[in-house]
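Q: For a teaching session next week I want to show students how multiple molecules come together into a single three-dimensional assembly. I've collected the sequence lines for a complex. Could you give me the predicted structure tokens for the whole thing so I can convert them for display?
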Amino acid sequence: MKRILLGAFEINQVNLTSQGLWAHPEQQTYRYKDLDYWLDLARLLERGYFDFLFLADSYGYPHLRGETPDVTFEQAVEVPNNDPMLLIPALASVTSDLHFAVTTSTTFEEPYANARRFATLDHLTKGRIGWNVVTTSSAVVSELFGRPQLAHDKRYARARDFLDLSYKLFEGSWEEGSVVVDKAARLYADPSRVHPIKHEGPYFTSHGYFDSEPSPQRTPVIVQAGTSSTGRAFAAANAEIVFLHGKDSEMLRGQVSDIRTAAESAGRGRDAIKAISGLSVVTGPSRSAADEKLEEYLEWVNPDAARAYYAMMTGIDLAALDPDASFSTVSTDGGKSHVERYRDTTVREASADFLRRGMRELILVGTPAEVADQIAGIVSDTDLDGFNYTPFVSPGSYADLVDSVVPELQRMGLVRTKHTRDTFRQRLFGAGSHLPGTHPGSLFRTDTRLAETSA
Amino acid sequence: MKRILLGAFEINQVNLTSQGLWAHPEQQTYRYKDLDYWLDLARLLERGYFDFLFLADSYGYPHLRGETPDVTFEQAVEVPNNDPMLLIPALASVTSDLHFAVTTSTTFEEPYANARRFATLDHLTKGRIGWNVVTTSSAVVSELFGRPQLAHDKRYARARDFLDLSYKLFEGSWEEGSVVVDKAARLYADPSRVHPIKHEGPYFTSHGYFDSEPSPQRTPVIVQAGTSSTGRAFAAANAEIVFLHGKDSEMLRGQVSDIRTAAESAGRGRDAIKAISGLSVVTGPSRSAADEKLEEYLEWVNPDAARAYYAMMTGIDLAALDPDASFSTVSTDGGKSHVERYRDTTVREASADFLRRGMRELILVGTPAEVADQIAGIVSDTDLDGFNYTPFVSPGSYADLVDSVVPELQRMGLVRTKHTRDTFRQRLFGAGSHLPGTHPGSLFRTDTRLAETSA
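A: Of course. Below is the structure for the complete assembly, covering every listed component.
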């Protein structure tokens, strides 16, 4: 059985995806502003052999029918939310082999500043960083940033330009070996091996040197979760981890196969992208105890808050639709096709399912051994490479997994049993820390040595 | 004798201001990419009763006569440099009463994203954050970011607009008491007390709610170091700490008096701004031993690197000027008047002084008792409120101060003797954590209660 990647899906706010669950007595997310909450969580994840902490992010909040409904603030639907990137250095300081992926938007960040932030993180964490690249479609964020909203295809064109410039900065400015740090010779770096980059793209222009010297991975591990056809093509070309959106093995199997084929078509090989899915787990001493526990969690979901959240994530106002209509007739922004899962249902059925599940993908319920068996079955059925574990309550749902399910998965050979100090990219592919020569980012290197060392 | 503020002046790179000193055997700054280096430094500063760590920052590097000279990379003149903000959460996690000020540029950052970063830091540090507001004049950075260079006055107009928008976000969106977090009532925040802001300024537009709930200080402590007349007016209106640039008591006395008068004219009171100056200290068992130690440090300065650095900081290429000309005839960008200190000297004399001093202000040399006496004398002569301590070698110069001079200053009542958990603003003014009602940022509040609580 192949080893799976175990990620934790988090966000720097109080509701993860089940709107209203912040108020559950066991829920500690109201402490999200407190570093100690996060430090303890990172220690728990490392103890539980998690491979990475995935930090989602978006500016903005629900806005529908011309206003932000009161329930947004009453139930803290995506707001308040704080910057998640700033958590990472502190979490890195109390862990040694937990990796981190964090989201930034190519639509709203500055590429040069963004690249320096990721290079700094890669240095400070010793190569434990991934970048979840998103293109933000939200009209609310456009209003907050005072910028015109970009159409779907333009967002991706901008994202491609953003990545090309980022690759040049990460890969093309400082040759391998350019940094000498020879105190005796009073030589810090060899100027003949540091080069100004020149980028004149449709959205971004940049001339000059990258401020940061090469970090362990140079380019952070590229993560992507886009579901539109444009998003999938972007992922096939660039991503090293793709976050899929399916609620069962059947949906996921097709998506995994598609992304492997697309990576192959992009000249990168079928195993160049790790495919992961969301996973929630509720365990108990018996199946019925676990079922009861899940139902108890779901009682905390606030339907109005869930609908506001759904509208924010998909652009679809469920309350404004005919409950008996087929969901397949609902039109949405091309970037929001995680509604795909409801294609063959009515609006009523889709709404009911969403109120239970939020944006969760797989939800597994049972005894620890049952859940471990289900996970093994899903991996076998779908060829998934791993999961983004999405807790109901934090840290309780993590502790449940770490203390009961992870040991089972370790026995089955699905989860590693030893801590290893490596870079994120080494963890994923077992090879070098740098982008492989088949990745488009490697094209921007000025020296061939780097491609050799990462082969 | 009034208590002084003790800050540490740092930068996330290997040369602080003496270009070439990175190679000194005692210099540990080559470890700047290593979190442990910074964690140890923060612990040392807290042990030594430092009030804050000041993190300077600028994108870019020297560029003169159309090129970046080789010495830039050979001696690491301002490059490589990493993002300093990302250090803070980790440093906050190992300290409890050390405050932090970090630089971001109103010319190159996005106000909404910048405000969310500072709010997040203020939350994570429990109110220990200051923002050093700079307007970046560098043509190099304009090229890196692919933007037209702004003239001096436009940079400050943009900075004013940036601050107005920031104040609205920090102060005007969430009323005091709007965040309830009542699990039993299932109520996170009271929507009637959260308001969208509306900003339509000459440079920035923003409509909507601030993503972050109110942090302990809301607006971070505003720090400013501009030296032009526009910069001074900006500081008089906004700053709570001003970083002055003078090399002796006489220069500093005038600047302190000027800023107090300007603050008073701005309706804020003579004590509304803390005036600090750079300070370097070299101690030894005797005056002559200390003198020798200083000379030994200065031997490591690389003249070409120092000149490249001077050109970057001031726009003046010393090597291209007539050595016998009066320095007062040298023209420079209005934002770079720290050349004022050389007004009455020749170019040759100015160059010689700069090669020794870099951008350092006061340099005090002697036994610990002698240095402590000099500091007391300077405070008495100038009415300065404190210092930004600028080490020659790190952490050695900090350890020298902490272990020998600080105890003397404590005996004299100049430095506190107890650790106190407070916010940065409380530390500075002994009052509330929020902006006082006389600060222009307070005008953007929607509720008057906040002004009352901070009076």
